[in-house]
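Narrative of activities, Objective 1.

The group set out to show that a structural description can be obtained from nothing but a protein's sequence at a throughput compatible with the screening campaign. Below is one input-output pair from the validation batch, recorded exactly as produced.
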Amino acid sequence: MSGLTEADKQRWQKQFVAPSRDYLESIWRRSQDAVPDLTDLTDRRRRMIHVIDRYDMVPMPEDASRYDFCITECYLWLCSTLPRDEAARYLDRVKTALAQGGWSSGDIQSWAHGELAFTIATTDRHEEDLAVGRDFGPNYETVECTLISKGFPRERIAHESPWAVLNSGVRTPGTRVSNPIVVEDLAELLPLLPAQVELGGGASLELGIPPLNYLHNVYGLYTQDNQFAYGDTDVLPERLLPDPAAFYTKQAAVPYARALAAKPNEFYRLLAELHASNLIVGPVITNNFDGLCSLVGLEELYVRRYDEAHIVPDIEFHPAARSLLVVGSHADRRRVQQAAKQKGLKVIYVDPESYVDHDGRIIPYPLEKLEADDLLVRLAASTFAEKLRATLA
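Output recorded for this entry:
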């Protein structure tokens, strides 16, 4: 995005910088699907990715009164544990991609490309695996690739974070009752107000902000047949290294660029009105990076996925809240709901149980966890807002 104005700059400050959300962090590991079976000699492969990008608006060289929106700092750690022959092929592919991108070699393990540095390290058995007694056997080795921009603040890289996520084990799927209580008449919700809100990505999707699986595609987490990618099926080196500038500007930065361009819709406006009338209370609890609530004057409690084990048990729900209204929050974002139930709050889900992906396809996305006393409103966020407004009139 180029040619942005001072007004855009002020919005950026309010939406992202003030709430300290100008950095986007993601961690993925193969054990999201399954822990490598160390008894299976044919498949002990593992892949972990840790990404931290910082975004900013900087004055354009040719016109300091206008701004470019860009990634100013980046860090990517890609760690693969593979059979030795596959690891050798993988290293060859990485080095071929570096050559295609014109990276200059400092030594046999480091390369440079403008402000970017890239290193490779190989180990027979990683020290983190040694520490917890993981042994992949003598036929496996670990390949660590690190890309980092010049001046990236090292204190932002908590090297133990991806290993802590790995050591937390496989995410346990939730359980769902066969016949959930589906609310058709929103008047049934009125006795459960005031409510506190937990906001997932559903409302953002309606505004054109890509879903999480957009970044799954960018970083090549899965193969075309929806298997977790590693080794021979890991396409990230060829996607990133030949043209890192294009990768970051045309792919990785898209979610932030879309969020900066988005305008709060009926759902966000109604949230603000309900908060002003005390029908919504407390901060909006969210793991969304887009900061759209701030644009309508709502306070947020930002709970990142990697911090939630420490933060969520200490959430102080508003004392006036009778329920937790969960809008478009899925999968492993369940700790807030569990904490609310422990406080005696009714949990109300607002979710169409489907979404439109970045290719325009309608993807079924049923809620994974629904308990017998939960309420489900099968509506998109903006439709829910329109119907609730009419109900309250």
